[in-house]
Amino acid sequence: MQISTLGRSISASPTLQLNQRAAALKARGVDVIHLGGGEPLSLAPEAATAAGVALLNTRAVRYTPAAGTTALRQAIADYTARFYGITPTPSHVIASNGAKQSLMIALRALVDPGDEVIFLSPYWVSYPEMVRLCGATPVVVETDADFQPRLEDITAAITPKTRVIMLNSPNNPTGVVYSAALLRGVIAACEARGVWLIMDDIYQRLVFDEAAPSGFALTERGLDEGVIIAVNGVSKQYAMTGFRLGWAVGPKVVISAMADIQSHETSGPSTVAQEATAAALAGDQAGVEALRLELRAHRDLLVNGLAQIEGARVIVPDGTFYLFADFSAIEPDDRALAERLLEQQRVVVVPGVDFGRPGHLRLSYCRGRAELEEAVGRLQAFFARG
């Protein structure tokens, strides 16, 4: 019996593997501090859980259209009008089982085997494998030491085989927010060359100073004449990771193709999750702001703590809940460093090589403040020993 070539070529998500390892250690009673995950500790909005419970209490939990209910798609359209500067209709929206599925379905709708997809390094760990799952070729464009991309490097990477550019801003793992000038230049290049632009906006509202620029607001083209697909979801900003509900907004021709593909892969998302998401989007947004302020304070705590470690280089994140620090002057082998931190200090971090940037570690600061303070103390003690 043989596994397919594709099955043999795709590796598991490193961050999910770390989650499993940390959970196994905790189950054994080990005092582990998990700075490797991307899951806020805050609770889902009360309106969201109440809506889900209300539907469950009817006991009539049925299938929905593959793209999601009209009510949810209208709620996402209203959200988009509020935060993106463009007013879509429900026909411009598809809801999926998490933003990851929205990204994957978008790639399936746009990319053929042998095509090329451009994204920036450091990148989210799933991007290369998602592109390979489509039979396409990942093309990685490096950013500078401060994780800032150059427009000329991006445009130079475009070839006749390029079908999609993927941008994630605010960025996982660095927390960098790309400038409006850069986005405007990438959009212009995509429009001129017939290349699609997928904006991974899952951390869009978790920014600490200026708001993250909206790609839709930086083009003069209408939604259906444009090249932009924006992906978002409730996992991060509403702390609804387990609901598995994300969405994409884009031209009707793309959304229609995505819905057809999704209808055969999974059908529509969970009906309960759709009800909860619509309520979260339409309800009180105070929880998002409270999470943003808490994350900003946690960012400052971690930045200040790492500043005491000689040889560590830290770029202050503009958003998300990740910090991507350069430890290459101390230990170039980031996998070995991450392993030693786990073994000796029981602190879980993610090696930078998994994000395309060796010598770095990604540390998440969406833990409780006391736990984060303890983690900083453990890190300082570890590096003080040399």
Give the oligomer, counting copies of the same chain as homo and different chains as hetero: single chain
Written as H for each helix and E for each strand, in order along the chain, the element string is HHEHHEHEHEHEHEEEHHHEHEEEH
The level of helicity is: 40-55%
The CATH topology of the largest domain corresponds to: Aspartate Aminotransferase, domain 2
User: Which architecture of the largest domain per CATH?
Assistant: 3-Layer(aba) Sandwich
- How far do the termini sit from each other? 49 Å
Total discrete domains? 2
CATH uppermost class of the largest domain: Alpha Beta
Largest sheet: 7 strands, mixed
**Unreliable spans:** none
Structural class: alpha/beta
Superfamily (CATH H level) name of the largest domain: Type I PLP-dependent aspartate aminotransferase-like (Major domain)
Written account of the structure:
The chain has 386 residues and is an alpha/beta fold. It has 13 helices and 12 strands. The chain folds into 2 domains: 5-44 and 286-385, Aspartate Aminotransferase, domain 1; 61-282, Aspartate Aminotransferase, domain 2. The protein has helices at 5-9, 14-27, 46-58, 70-84, 99-110, 127-133, 151-157, 180-193, 252-265, 271-282, 286-306, 334-345, 369-385, and strands spanning 33-34, 93-96, 116-121, 137-142, 162-168, 196-200, 228-233, 246-249, 322-326, 347-348, 350-351, 360-364. The strands form 3 sheets. A 7-stranded mixed β-sheet has the order 2-8-7-6-5-3-4, with helices on both faces. Strands 9-12-11 form a 3-stranded antiparallel β-sheet. Helix 4 (70-84) runs parallel beside helix 10 (271-282) and helix 11 packs parallel to helix 13. The model has no long low-confidence stretch (mean pLDDT 95).
